[in-house]
Amino acid sequence: MLLLVVQFFMLSIFTDANPLDIACSNTSYAPNSPFESSLKLLLESIATNTSQGFYNLSIGDDPNRVFGRALCRGDVNRTVCQNCLENARHEILKNCKTAEEAIIWYELCQIQYSYRKFLVMVYAGQYAEKWNNQWKSVSNPARFIEVLTYLMTNLSIEASSDPAMFAVGEVKFPKRKTIYGLVQCTRDINSRDCNDCLTGALGDLKACCGAREAGIIVNENCNLRFQLSLFYNASTRIALTYPTSTDEKRSQRGLLHELAGPISVSLTQEGDLVSSEELPFVHLAVIKAATDGFSDSNKLGQGGFGTVYKGVLPNGKEVAVKRLSRKSWQGLEEFKNEIILIAKLQHRNLVRLVGCGIEGEEKLLIYELMPNRSLDCFIFDSERRLQLNWNTCYNIIGGISKGLLYLHEDSRLKIIHRDLKPSNVLLDKDMVAKISDFGMARIFCENQKTANTRRVVGTYGYMAPEYAMEGLFSVKSDVFSFGVIVLEIISGKRNSGFYLTGHAQTLLAYVWQLWKEGKEMEFVDPLLMKSSSIPQVVRCIHIGLLCVQEDPAVRPTMSNVVALLGSESIALSEPRQPPFPVGRTIVLAEQPSTKDPSVCHDLTVSTLSPR
Ligand SMILES: *[C@@H]1O[C@H](CO)[C@@H](O)[C@H](O)[C@H]1NC(C)=O
Ligand SMILES: *[C@@H]1O[C@H](CO)[C@@H](O)[C@H](O)[C@H]1NC(C)=O
Ligand SMILES: *[C@@H]1O[C@H](CO)[C@@H](O)[C@H](O)[C@H]1NC(C)=O
Ligand SMILES: *[C@@H]1O[C@H](CO)[C@@H](O)[C@H](O)[C@H]1NC(C)=O
Ligand SMILES: *[C@@H]1O[C@H](CO)[C@@H](O)[C@H](O)[C@H]1NC(C)=O
Ligand SMILES: *[C@@H]1O[C@H](CO)[C@@H](O)[C@H](O)[C@H]1NC(C)=O
Ligand SMILES: *[C@@H]1O[C@H](CO)[C@@H](O)[C@H](O)[C@H]1NC(C)=O
C-alpha cells in the first residue's frame, strides 16, 4: 500500500496538476468579496488572452484592484499555452485559497497575481528543488559548469535584447553530449533588468545544479533551465561552440616583464576613473600571469557576476581576483559601486580591495586572499563544521556585527549592504570574519532613514519582509539579515530550504516554537554544545530573535547589537514572534533532500560572490 502511494506520488509530481513551485502570501482577502470577483475575472481573462505568450493587466478599482501577469514558455504554441494557463489558474486558486498575492510556476507557464503593482524582482531565486533533485551528477563537473556558463551567458544576453525576451541554444559537451539551455524574462521589464535577473539566476543555477544533468531556476521576472537532452521546440536556436583554450601563457609571462609598476586610479563619485594613491590599478597582463591565465586550477568560486581566481602578484602577495562576467551591465554597475565603496573603507571585519583592473571588456577586482573561504562553507558543511567550536562561532558573530556597525555608523559613509548572507562573509586564516561583496550596497545620506526601490535584489531567506515585499530598505533590513545568520550559525541549518519533519517550516518558525516552550537549547547544533557556554548561546539566540522582528523599529541597531554581545549585564527585551516567510512556499518534496545545496561541495562551484 505504502509503495503504491509513493509510486503514485513520484509519477504525479510533474504532471499538469503539479507545479514546479508555488508561493502564496498569508495575507488574505475576504471570501466572496469584490476583490475575489476581480481576481476570478482576471484569472479567466489571463487564460483566454495570453495569445502572445505574455499578458499583463489589472482589473477592478482600488481597493479591489488585482494585478496579474502570465507568461508562457517562448517555444510553446497558443494551444499549449492556453492549456497550461487554464490548469494553472485553477491550481493557484486551489492552493493559495484567499491569498492576496500568489505565484505559480509550471514548466510551460506561470501566473502571478497581487493586490498591488509588481516590484521588479531583479533577483530573488526560487529553486524548484524537487525537480532539480531528481537529476544525476555529471562526471566532469568543473568542465561542465564552464561550458554551461558559456552557453547560459550567451543566451541571457541574447534574450535581454530580444523583443520576446526569450532565447534557446545548445553547446556541445565532450563525449558526444549536448547541453540545451533556455532563458526567458517577463516582457514588462527592461532589457537591463532582464539581464540582471538572469545573471543572478545563473549564479543560483550553478550553485544548485551546475554539476547535474539538468536544472531550473524560476523567479518572478525571469527563469532559466538547462538539460542534457533536447527539451524545447524552437525553430531559432543558437548553436555555440565552446572555444578551446589557446596557449597564451608564455606570451603573458613575457609581457609581465615589460610592464612597469602599477599605476594608481580611483573613481569619482560619478564613477569616472581618476588617478590616485588609494587604489592600485593593475594591468590585465599582470593579473593574467598572476592567475595562470585565469586557469581552472586557480578557480576559487563563481557567482552571478563573475568568477573568482586565486592569484600571486609579482611581489609575492596572494590575492583573490574577481573577474566580472563580460558584457554584463550589472557587472559594470557593480564594479563601480564596489570600487567607490570599498576602496574608501578599511576595517578589520571588511574584506580589503587591494587593486583593480579594467581593459576593454575585462573588469577585475583584486582582494586580499581569504584562505578559509566563506562562512557557508563551514556552517552548512557537515564535515567542515566539525572544525568549528562555540568560541570560533561567537567570534565570527562578533566580527560580522562589528563590520556591519562600521558600515552603518562608523565609516565616512552610511552604507546599507543589502545582500548580507553567509556566502558574503569571508574568513581569513585566523577565522576572522570579513564582510564582502558590496555590489548591491547603497550609500545613505546623513539623515536618510529608509529608501524605496522597485528593483529588489537580494536572497530569499535573508531579506527583511519590508524589503522583500515593499522594496523598503534601511540599516534595519541589514539587521534582519544579520539575525538570520546568527540563527543559522547556531543551528547549522539554513533558513531557506529548511525542512524538519513534524516541525515548523522555516528556521524562524522553528526557533520561535522552541523559544516559546523554553526549549531553545534544542535549537543549538549538538556539535557546538560540547564547547559552548550555555548562557552565551542563549543570549545569542535571544539577540538573533530580536534582530528578526517583523517591525523594523523594534529591531536593535548594530550599535545595540555590539553592546549586547559585549556585555552580559545589559538586559534584553522579550522578542515577539518573528515574521514567517514572505511567501509561503509549498514544498513539493516529501522528503528533505539530504544533499546540502551548499555551493561548497565541489571545486566547481563556490562562494566568494554568488547571489
Ligand atoms: C501570517 O503568518 C503568521 C505566522 O503563521 C501569522 O502569525 C500571521 O497572523 C499571518 N497573517 C495573516 C494575515 O494571516
Ligand atoms: C480578454 O478576455 C476577455 C474574455 O475572457 C475579453 O472580454 C477581453 O476583451 C479580453 N481582453 C483583451 C485585452 O484581449
Ligand atoms: C501545438 O503544439 C502541440 C504540441 O507540440 C501540438 O500537438 C499541436 O498540434 C500544436 N497546435 C498548433 C495549432 O500548432
Ligand atoms: C552568442 O553566440 C552566437 C553564436 O556563436 C553569436 O553569434 C552571438 O554573437 C553570441 N552572443 C553574444 C551576446 O555573445
Ligand atoms: C502592466 O500592467 C500594469 C498594470 O495594468 C501597467 O501599469 C503596466 O504599464 C503594464 N506594463 C506593460 C509593459 O504592459
Ligand atoms: C514544433 O514547432 C513547430 C513550429 O512552431 C510546429 O510546427 C511543430 O508542431 C512543433 N512540434 C512539436 C513536437 O511540438
Ligand atoms: C584556516 O586557514 C589556515 C591557513 O590556510 C589554516 O591553517 C587553518 O587550519 C584554517 N582553519 C580552519 C578552521 O580550517
From TrEMBL:
It comes from the Eukaryota. CDD domains: Gnk2-like, STKc_IRAK. It is a single-pass membrane protein. Keywords: ATP-binding, Disulfide bond, Glycoprotein, Kinase, Membrane, Nucleotide-binding, Receptor, Repeat, Serine/threonine-protein kinase, Signal, Transferase, Transmembrane, Transmembrane helix. GO terms for molecular function: ATP binding; protein serine/threonine kinase activity. The keyword 4Fe-4S does not apply. Its EC number is 2.7.11.1. PROSITE patterns: GNK2 (PS51473), PROTEIN_KINASE_ATP (PS00107), PROTEIN_KINASE_DOM (PS50011), PROTEIN_KINASE_ST (PS00108). ATP binds at residue 322. Pfam families: PK_Tyr_Ser-Thr, Stress-antifung. Residues 1-17 form the signal peptide. Its main location: membrane. One of its GO terms (cellular component) is plasma membrane. It is found in: Membrane. Residues 294-570 form the Protein kinase domain. It catalyses: L-seryl-[protein] + ATP = O-phospho-L-seryl-[protein] + ADP + H(+); L-threonyl-[protein] + ATP = O-phospho-L-threonyl-[protein] + ADP + H(+). SUPFAM superfamilies: Protein kinase-like (PK-like). The keyword Membrane applies. GO terms for biological process: immune response; signal transduction. Residues 17-118, 126-231 form the Gnk2-homologous domain. This is non-specific serine/threonine protein kinase. It comes from Citrus sinensis (Sweet orange).
